[in-house]
Amino acid sequence: MRALLGSRLRRWTALVVAVLIVAAAAVIFWPRSTETPVATRDLTLPGAKAPWDAAPVQLDSTLYLPTATPAPAVILAHGFGGSKASVVDDAQRLARAGFVVLAYSARGFGNSTGTISLDSLDAEIPDARALVDYLATLPEVRQDKPGDPRVGVTGGSYGGALSLMLAGTDPRIDAVVPVITWNSLQAALFPNSAEVGATGQGSDGAAGPKTPAEVTAGADGVFKKYWTASLVSSVVLGGALGNTAQVDVGPGGIGGGSQGGSGAATTGDPNGGDSGTGAATVPSDRDPGCGRLRLEVCAAYARAADTGRIDDALTKLLTRSSPSEVAGAITAPTLLVQGEQDTLFPLDQADANARAIAANGTTVAVDWYRGGHDGGAPDPETEDRITGWLQHYLAGTGPVPSAAFRYSVDGGVTDNGRPRTRVLQADAYPGIAGAPAVRRTAVQLQGADQLVLNPAGGTPAAISSLPGLSQASGGLSSLLTSALPGQSATFSSAPFDRLAVVTGSARVRVTVSALPSVTTTAGSAQAATGPVLFAAIGSRNSAGTVTMGRSAVAPIRLPASAAEGDTTVTVDLPAVALQVAAGDQLIVRFTTTDQAYAGPTSAAAYRISGVTSVSVPEANGVRVSAGEVPIGTLIALIALAVLATVGLWIAGRLRHRPRPAPQAAAASGEAGPDGGPDAAADGTPDPAELDAPVLPLTIRNLSKSYPGGVHAVQDVSFEVRPGQVLGLLGPNGAGKTTTLRMVMGLIRPSSGEIAVFGTNVGPGAEILSRIGSFVEGSGFLPHLSGTANLLNYWRATGRPMADAHLDDVLAIAGLGTAVRRRVKTYSQGMRQRLAIAQAMLGLPDLLLLDEPTNGLDPPQIHAMREVLRRYAGTGRTVLVSSHLLSEVEQTCSHVVVINQGRTIAAGRVSELIATSGEMSFTVDDPPAAAAVLTAIDGVGEIEVLGDTLQVDLGRTSPAAAIAALVAANIAVSSAAPRNRLEDVFLDLVGATGTGPQQGDPA
Q: Model's pTM, two decimal places?
């Protein structure tokens, strides 16, 4: 930086550029409405007449119309505490996507009449069927046949359950997208994750759960008092809750329950207008303590709040409000979107819906996103997936949606010390029809028998989560989720020797022994209700920092008999997506109290024992993208990127001469501005270097360390020659991405040398203009088309437009007419191809690609393979970092293998494979051939498979083996290395140790 701004002219130039960039950003990103208004029609539609209604309810509704009709329709339902005004943005977005959208306020909310019955099959669901009847009368709606409109349904939370239950009771529904919702309202509000005497069988009696988040739904659960109270209060007290309840964050508006993101409901306008969210004004003849809640629901809740237990009446009500009653009858293709940060409706609820729907032979896809009632709205990719699902199954446009299972995990730290969120993807949701069962691994746990106490009064109580806690308090949430001394028992594994991702609900067996206490008597409340514990799963790093999986707990209520003896139970821990890095420990924790639940208040003591192992599910997904960047941060990064690009251009114009190669600098003995060797004073290179070949990339003894002793790269050295397609291989955390970023000048090395075409690399180096790169995302502007993004990127370089070779690059990308669409409509594969096209702009001499095939389907991967080969065939050079070893073997001519920040192997792919000594020979006389080869000193194991011999040659060369066979009159029709690159790679990594480094988990 000192060299870049070393003169007054450069400093003033940089200041002017910075001011211009900030001004441009303000103009570009200042909020303004640019979308074409959507035509709307306000309606009051008749609902159904429930058994307790005096007359059919009136549903306050709005119809949103697309530019072209007739079109398929979407019923858009809001979240609890919301109204039709809560989903305006989503209704308009779907209408612009070509749908007729019917948004309405459910009975008891907004200006709709009737009472709130919690999505009852006897009330809210018949209301929704009446809306389908109305859509069947509209000429603007496409009809499959008379009385049967082409219609889908979506919504979040309260609206999500309605979506499922409507699809399960009305065969006219053609597509379903429920978001952050429940399967069984009883299991969600009164969970019990323990099964006494269970053997670990799944729901169908087979050994172990077959899906990632299948959990026990035991009877007599523990009351989720704080969430339930917040929900009920939001419609009874309305605006009195203010912004503290965070009842329904809404999934990006898809059925979101509140405007402005507050999530709190408000009462209706006393003058009859719709305030936008919340329940309508309470009539004077209603119980003021119940608001617009149906009286039976209100009374049942009051009993549960008083006793902390569920009774038969409430059980029946919650059953009639649960998709579990009808999910097995759903025939419409269903995309289940659930939040990983959701203590109201956890991941197991979506799992139960997936199992029930798939069992009917219905198409099902599952998406876990990093958010939920505790964590926020879905990311743009998830929103795009929702829209794509509806477009295909309703409008018949677009490709067949993927049934892949997507989930997010927080990984290691980035270069700025922040956790890195990754999106992983498996081919399908494990365990449902047509998909393999989830893989489970038994992890051994250590820990002596431990004593835990339930304090008198149940106070103080641990805090795992409260409504809105994760969103409202940020880092405070992590602090509050710590277990209280004397109330918790923790069991831990040995440090992991590999990175693992717990994907779903882990299963553990535990023995709980009630201990005699002077404060506990046979007639106490504790003995009457049975012991209650709360189980959780997390990880602990080498520094002792504990991270509990999404602040979630699994409540356990043991039978009353357990208060007087030993009880062994199988417990399904909370379903999470939790990364355990190599060197970290997995921990399982049991506590006696939790502020969010209604636990026993009698003093008691228990011994926790028998926790020896935990069954951990893993989905083995592959990375498809990084986590989302907040829009404010994204804007700042874009501004900085543009500023940096302009600064590099200015620096290149002001620079008098390039810095010499490391070899020339060392020969001259001069010190450069950073203290390293530089050229002679007159700028003349050493004559000895003039005849040396100038390589595209030379790396010598490269290292990068961070404060705290984190070594991302320790000793990496290799060369890349013209015309090569070189694969940079290594396990997660090996240092691949950090190495590429140092080559690009984005990170300064701690030591070592990097030369690109004979010139030292550093921030602002002019030689960087000869590098094209795609590393860790591309940062496209989502509101611009693909073409506009490419043009803006090239203009920022300051180079002539003719040098971009845009037509050639677009032909390589193969995006067709999609390049004219906005990037926010792109799939992950389309974004990947656009990013690679951006890297190829200007046809750079050195191309650096980090995981270029992420998000591409097999035909696209094959096409990319040919592109890279052709590109290198022009004399240019390609360096590819990839986890797909089979693709590297087919694409790359050379490879460099690094592990734990060090180079451990390099060479031609064919040579590395051949060095293992494993060969396959096809001969005419296998027994005789085996005898000949066995007689050669040093030849190891020989396996005869038909007319083929699999031979470990050891140190014997293949040529010598073939010569011996021919000399023995044995015909050899083929000879080839037996190993694949994957085998060699695993041998190399295994020989040097595994385990990701904290500095580079990619």
A: 0.61
